[in-house]
Amino acid sequence: MGEKVRLRHVAVAVESIDAALPLWKALGLELRHTEDVPSEGVRTAHLAAGGSEVELLEPLTRDTPVGRFLERQGPGLHHIALEVSDLAAALARCADAGLRPLSGDARDGAEGSRVAFFHPRDTGGVLLELVEPAPKPV
Length: 138
Ligand code: CO
Prior knowledge:
CATH class: Alpha Beta
Strand order of the largest sheet: 2-3-4-1-5-8-7-6
CATH architecture: Roll
Number of strands: 8
CATH superfamily: 2,3-Dihydroxybiphenyl 1,2-Dioxygenase, domain 1
Low-confidence stretches: none
Number of helices: 3
Bound molecules: cobalt (II) ion
Strand content: 35-45%
Mean pLDDT: 93
Helix content: 10-25%
Largest sheet: 8 strands, mixed
């Protein structure tokens, strides 16, 4: 049985979430959640877009991956995130295919999720995130 994978979000790097929000709200997207993720050096804003989201990324400092991204190429499309139900299994499949995540392993993401990133040089030019959501409270 194949695992269910879905497009979880498309992430856009911005200088300022506050400055970027009016555009996305004008497009009809609703702000659902904002959160600082110190492990990634970013503030995030998640906007609902159908069953997926647009994730805005604002660097907490310049010396972070998103800060350096903005320095290098300015604001714009940053990564896409695919949601998997079992990140360890997904990473094992990727390892079998010769694909290793940045930083070697999964780490903590927003809202209690676990995430792993793959470098664009290994994925045809797209920074790719795999996300296993936090277990839903019962
Ligand atoms: Co993301």
